[in-house]
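*** Backbone structure tokens ***
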Amino acid sequence: MPPKKQTSKRITLHDVAAVAGVSIQTVSHVMTGNPTVKLPESTRQKVRDAAKEVGYSPNRHAQAIRSGKTNVIAIWMPVDRPIVSYIRMLQLISREAKRTSYELMIVPLDRESGLSDQAVAPNMWPVDGILAMDSGAAVERYRETAEGKTTPVVVIGYELVDNGDAVAWNATDSVQMATKRLIDSGCQNVVYITMDWQVRDFPYERRRAGYTAAMQGAGLHTRFVIVEEESRIGACKAVSEYVAASGVPDAFVAMTDMLAMGAVRAVKAAGKRVPEDCQVMGYGSHPDAEDFEIAISTLRSPIGEVIPRAWERLIERIANPNLPSALETFEMEFVQRQSTR
């Protein structure tokens, strides 16, 4: 005889109630977290244990329709750049989500989906709120859609949007201060290293603005190295070409620690010493910067303060969508290492 065909049976509230020895209504109250019904904790635990035993999973879509809440936060995260800070942010966000019993939905963004002027707003399931890493422009486009008009948003960055907040660190003043330190140490020829897409797509980028303000404030000329590949190799190649054409400057200020590490190698390859002949300043406190062949001086982002605050503001906005929009900034920390004097 052919084997008997097995059918999968969907586990329901009735199954949980039968194992727990309570009513279906009690199971429903526990599974939905209904705050208006008072039940002994022993009963709630009995229901949770029974749900685990029978393998019951709540129908989140149905719950969202009934309650108007999904208990899910979307994390909009750029994935087109090798940025370690985004992973560190995600770790801290995950900690906050567990603490407040929310679940996370990762929405990856790149130049085609969300980050460029031509990109469309990302599609996703309904969520209670959005934490957007460096993607305020994508949020603006999302606000133009029917589902995106009212979703609470907190941008981790400087872009302030309607029905949303922004939490960031003061990149402009910090890079201006770091560049001024180099100038005060005797550097007259200070060159900024940046990415080609940043120059092309972000003419008012804050790090570059801080460098420019410091140089112009000292009556010095701004000079730039444009990097095409965001890596140590790409930065080393671009800086080496600049050095071959214009010589080794007094100092480099880099958009990221990754680019700063490439600059160190290019300076050494030209037969010069860091920091004696050329100082190099990074940005972002990349994990490799501290134990690089020459430890990179950097500006450390206050991620440990920014993420909990951004999460707190989002939860507040979910509870009260009519709060006025606000921008909150934190100071960066200058970290002195071997690459600067």
